[in-house]
Amino acid sequence: MTSRFRGLTGLYKHQGPRAHGPGPSGASVGVTFHPFARLKDMEAETQRFTLGAVVLLHFLVSLVHGSVHDSAGVVLSGSAMLFVVVVILAGPLAGFAWMWKQPVAGARLIGVTMAGSLVFGLINHFIIAGADRIDHVAAHWRPMFTLTAASLAAIEVVGAVLGLAYRRTVTRGVS
Questions:
Q1: Are 167 and 111 in contact (CB under 8 A)?
Q2: pLDDT of residue 173
Q3: Confidence grade of residue 167 (pLDDT, cut at 50, 70, 90)
Q4: Backbone dihedral region of 26: left (phi > 0), alpha (psi from -120 to 50 degrees) or beta?
Q5: What is the extent of the structural domain holding 7?
Q6: How crowded is the C-beta side of 67, counted as CA atoms within 13 Å?
Q7: Which H or E element spans position 62?
Q8: What's the CA gap between 2 and 22, in Å, rounded?
Q9: Which stretches does DSSP call E strand in the chain?
Q10: Residue 123: its pLDDT value, please?
Q11: Of 7, 25, 97, 100, which is most buried with the most CB atoms under 10 A?
Q12: pTM score, two decimals?
């Protein structure tokens, strides 16, 4: 690879001779972009630390979002509250704790619970009309409610991807 790719080698993978133009030796070289290449190159400990940071951030933002729920008078049904406690709050924490004994299983639990949390949040905050949808929250609390709901969605995307990719990258290794 040429020097302009130095430092980005984790993002690009040499594919061998192709008709993409001459490489440094004059031969045709193919270089393909791999957006998850850096993730594949992460060591298991780095992935575990990153997942732990995502789980902690998710928990903290969830607590703030819950506080805004209470302040805005947005009450959840019993089944929704059970889902919040078991899947959204406890699930990622349990997955992270489980990672110390069985890393792949714990990471997978984090990924699955974050994906479930994401679906729940998207449906309740942005799709279904009800007290929990961002445009139905009291005007005074709407900015903070919207900010925490959107932040949770972003964190849950990252947590789901990292949790499920951990399983793939650790068990299969770097390709």
A1: yes
A2: 53
A3: low
A4: left
A5: 1-35
A6: 9
A7: helix 44-72
A8: 11
A9: 12-14, 31-33
A10: 97
A11: 97
A12: 0.72
Q: Report the sign of the C-alpha dihedral through residues 53, 57, 60, 66, in that order.
A: negative
User: How far apart, in Å, are the Cα atoms of 132 and each of 88, 111, 143?
Assistant: 16, 24, 13
**Phi and psi for 132 in degrees, rounded to 5?**
-90, -5
| Token code pair at residue 104 | 């792949």
Side chain identity at 98, as an amino acid letter? W
26 and 63 housed in the same domain = no
Do 15 and 53 have their domain in common? no
**Does residue 166 share a domain with residue 87?**
yes
> Do 46 and 27 fall into the same domain?
no
C-alpha separations of 113 from 61, 96, 134 in Å: 16, 11, 22
User: What token pair was written down for 60?
Assistant: 């903290």
pLDDT for the residue numbered 43: 73
* pLDDT value of position 4: 45
Report the 10 Å Cβ neighbour count for 132. Answer: 23
Average the pLDDT over 27-39 and give the result: 56
Contacts (Cβ under 8 Å, ≥6 apart) of 12 = 1, 5, 31, 32, 33, 34, 37
Q: Say whether both 112 and 62 belong to one domain.
A: yes
* Co-location of 52 and 128 in the same domain: yes
